[in-house]
Design goal:
It is a single chain. By secondary structure, the chain is of the alpha/beta class. It has helices at about 5-10, 20-30, 75-90, 110-120, 135-145, 170-195, 200-210, 215-225, and strands spanning about 1-5, 30-35, 45-50, 60, 65-70, 100-105, 125-135, 150, 155-160, 215, 230, 235, 240. α4 links the parallel β6 (about 100-105) and β7. α2 runs antiparallel to α3 and α3 packs parallel to α4. The longest helix has 25 residues, at about 170-195. The radius of gyration is 19 Å and the shape is globular. It starts with a strand and ends with a strand.
């Protein structure tokens, strides 16, 4: 597991806010210096988040753009790293937007929902951009970005579906878990309904989510998951990301 944090992010103010201190401590817990070399802009430091298996991890840079990368499957480790970075950046400058780049096949529903809750909890608006694929929980996080700030690149792939899982054991326990997964499905459908810019009823969303539904950029725009398809990355007048 690897995360990249800019050197600026390592300089802690003399009297940081409580939220900033908690987030920074979590980042330090998740990360430790690595001797491995990772190419990146000058001034970057390489961090190795000690995992049991070598898998992709989010990246964060405390620059003008305030960028967080969500790469690879969403699990508890990846989720904790993303949440810590979002909280840290929000504590540093609550009024500035955070740009979340998404390229994930999805993963744990609970881990993904905790990222979503953090996105809506912090004061900073979170701009979401799909730069590869946003499948399963990835599509929900893409859809859950700030209004009119949800983007994808022209060749992005977005996939939605209902949650899946398996359980074995006593019949009464299987019934309990079946009831829980139905509750989670209803909750996910409500979140999609809340953020889709094109009106859909819960019944329509449930039908769309019945099986794996893959969409290109144009289809995702038509459905209301994203607000715009970006073809060029440009700077706005404040030095952050802007529309082409």
């Amino acid at each position: 597991m690897r995360a990249v944090v800019s050197s600026k992010m390592q300089r802690v103010a003399k009297a940081p806010s409580n939220a900033s201190a908690v987030a920074l401590n979590l980042l330090r817990t998740l990360s430790k210096p690595s001797s491995r070399s990772l190419s990146g802009p000058p001034g970057f430091r390489d961090y190795n988040v000690a995992p049991k298996a070598w898998v992709p991890t989010p990246l964060v840079t405390e620059t003008v753009e305030r960028i967080v990368f969500l790469n690879g499957p969403i699990d508890d480790t990846v989720s904790n790293s993303v949440k810590a970075q979002l909280i840290y950046l929000e504590a540093e400058a609550p009024e500035k937007p955070i740009h979340l780049y998404i390229d994930t096949p999805g993963g744990s529903v609970n881990a993904g929902l905790s990222i979503y809750d953090t996105m809506t909890y912090i004061s900073s608006p979170v701009t979401t951009t799909c730069i590869g694929q946003a499948a399963s929980m990835g599509s929900l996080l893409l859809c859950g970005g700030a209004p009119k700030k949800r983007f994808c690149l022209p060749n992005s792939s977005i996939m939605i579906h209902q949650p899946s899982g398996g359980y074995y054991g006593q019949a009464s326990d299987i019934a309990i878990h079946a009831k829980e997964i139905l509750r989670v499905r209803e909750k996910l459908n409500e979140i999609y309904k809340r953020h889709l810019t094109k009106p859909h009823s819960l019944e329509e969303i449930e039908k769309l989510m019945e099986r794996d539904k893959f969409m290109g950029a144009e289809e995702a725009l038509e459905m209301g998951i994203v607000d715009e398809i970006l073809t060029k990355r440009v700077k706005d007048e404040n030095g952050g990301e802007g529309k082409p």
